[in-house]
Amino acid sequence: MNSPEYQPFQHTPEEIALRSSIDVPLLLLPKRGSLFAERALRLRQKAAGHAMRDYLMLMALVCEAQHERLQHFPQVPIPTQEQVDAAAASGEALLAADRWPRDPAWRGELRSLLRQVLDKLPADSPARAGVQAVIDLPDEPLEQQADRLLSGITLGLDVAAAPLIGAGLQLYWAHLVAATSALGPTVFRPVQGSNRCPCCGSAPTASLTRVGGKQEGQRYLCCSLCAAQWLMGRVQCTHCLSHEGIHYRGLQAADDSTEPTKRPAIEAETCDACKHYLKIMHMAREVHAEPVADDLATLTLDLLVSEEGYIRSGSNMLLLFGDPDAEPGPS
Ligand SMILES: [Zn+2]
Ligand SMILES: [Zn+2]
Question: If you average pLDDT over residues 112-128, what whole number do you get?
Fold first, then answer.
């Protein structure tokens, strides 16, 4: 892409100091009290003056409703000791998104969530019809859409409804993970070097290099469904796990050219071996970076790397890359 405002920014893996430590936590669980609230705040922050302002603001309303519903989520079954043992023995994720029997409560919570969004949307908002359509969706087609979404099947998937249904699934899984984690510290078994969430088996949205404490400078993959974060090698393809041919592309505002050492907070980590990429966000450069919100707000970077022939890996439940000619969800 040859946008006049931006120029590609690159640096090599050799420039990045590799660290390792035995004390680094392998898994960071989302915090019920802040997960969706921080995401909503970040979306509002990013929406100002953004080309996708209306969509980012709609998703901020969705995340605010997710936050409120998560504080009072109804009791639903969590894994039995037998299920915990079976998952540990098989190495499968305990709350595997494509196998865990969803409690019907998730549908009620989704509809309540969307009613809250409707209450906040302006009367003339073009997004209202899409939100209402998901509220009105009968149980069976709703469950079918959820199945497709969680299995990554795009055939027959309603791309406009998917981010709203995805928000309900995120809410349910965030609650499930929080409730299940009360069973004990070893209930989830992270496998080092895996590109799938140790709690729910989903793909990441992005990776985050963290600051503070034992996580300082460590890179974590951020689950697209339950928001758990798990440790991953610092310079490694998160799709094919190759350590070779990894490069970083960022967007740098042209007026930053006087400051050549200033690196972008969000980059695409590209892999020469499999030609995939996933975004990596650096908290040391932007402490408020939030994987889902910042991914949505940096679609220009996706355009840049896709024009270079790289394929996006991972997923963002709040934005589906289905038909490349389609609009990015309801707006
Ligand atoms: Zn997960
Ligand atoms: Zn790769």
Answer: 97
> How far does residue 24's CA lie from ligand 1's centre (Å)?
19
205 CA distance to ligand 2 centroid (A)? 16
Give the domain CATH number at 171: 3.90.1670.10
Give the distance (Å) from ligand 2 centre to CA of residue 239: 5
User: Is 54 in the same domain as 154?
Assistant: yes
Q: Containing domain of residue 70, as a range? A: 31-181
- 223, two tokens: 């689950």
Q: Is the pLDDT of residue 10 over 80?
A: no
327 within some domain: no
pLDDT mean across residues, the chain: 88
Task: Give residue 233 CA to ligand 2 midpoint distance, Å.
Answer: 13
Q: Which class for 219: exposed (0-12), middle (13-18), buried (19 or more C-beta within 10 A)?
A: buried
